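Late entry, evening session. Most of the bench is empty. Finally got around to the prediction I had been postponing all week. Sequence below, unchanged from the version circulated by S.P.
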Amino acid sequence: MPSPIKKKTPSDSGAESHPKTAYAKAGVDIVKADRFVETLSKMVKSTLNPKVHKSIGGYASLYQIGPNQFIAATTDGVGTKLKLGFELNRHHTVGIDLVAMSVNDLICVGATPLFFLDYFATGKLDLKTSTEVMRGIVEGCKQGRVALIGGETAEMPGIYAKGEYDLAGFAVGLVDRKDLIDGGGVKEGDLLLGLESSGPHSNGFSLIRKLLDKKPRDAKLVRECFEPTRIYVDAVIALRKTLRHNLKGLAHITGSGFLNIPRINDCFDYQIQLPRSFKIPKLFLQLKTRGKLSWEELYTTFNMGVGLVAVVSPQTFSKAEQTLRALKLKAHLLGRVKRSRQGSRISVQGPGFAIELRYD
């Protein structure tokens, strides 16, 4: 999924002049990646036709197949979380991650997931490992309510180190025009409902792995970081059924952390005040300590315990909360939508800290 583009402050003059964040030192340059997405978006325009309703930059691209119906399509991978899987010799859960990262994007535009395809590439095929990966993909497809209709297995000697592989996933869904979730109905005063994550999901692992390597090695922290990504398909289906068109916006909190929230509608500010009922998971606080990370770095890299954010009206909030509680999924009132004067800002206030992020 393309990462959102973070607006530079007036003092910024380019990526090279930025003090390097811990994530950049771990080898991931978000500023450069965002510039690539901008460049790519311009290049792609020459390939589009009138049936393309929404292209690069959103959670899913939309292609019109009827007067009032669209195909939604998205693709993603698992990232360097795979390296941790190689180290632990655990391959089942990364298959779940692969499906989750795509279907969680599809539901953010209101689409019902239909089918999934996978790509598995390795230097030399190991039947035990590849079977474990596929077992996880099948489990993810069941959780995400998608049919696994095909894929590609590629053996490429010399490309991958012994015992390593890479994964990519492709998901397609269907959405009627009346069911599109595009943030257009968001208003000042609407509430932000945060659905809890199962851990870091599949983002920030270039930094996480670097921090986990620090002595002393914490086996429990490693296991917690490796938890599979939570799939929110059932939760969103239930919310759509209960709230109908009062489910105004959804943000999948992936790469760039809370900077994903303004992707719902970047004409507003988002004021977040973490409630007492919400405890930042200890694993993120441990990562903060290990890497001496700032709160801003944490909230622009990780999901911080919130995997999906929904925008609902104050009148329907209780109904949404009850719906999720029936699914045994914890959700919290995170904050509210505010009128924006210039650009979109996300303020986050928690126990002992307050930060402000800008989005463009």
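Two things to note before I forget:
Residues 196 and 328 are 11 Å apart (CA to CA).
The first helix runs from residue 22 to 25.
Will write this up properly tomorrow.
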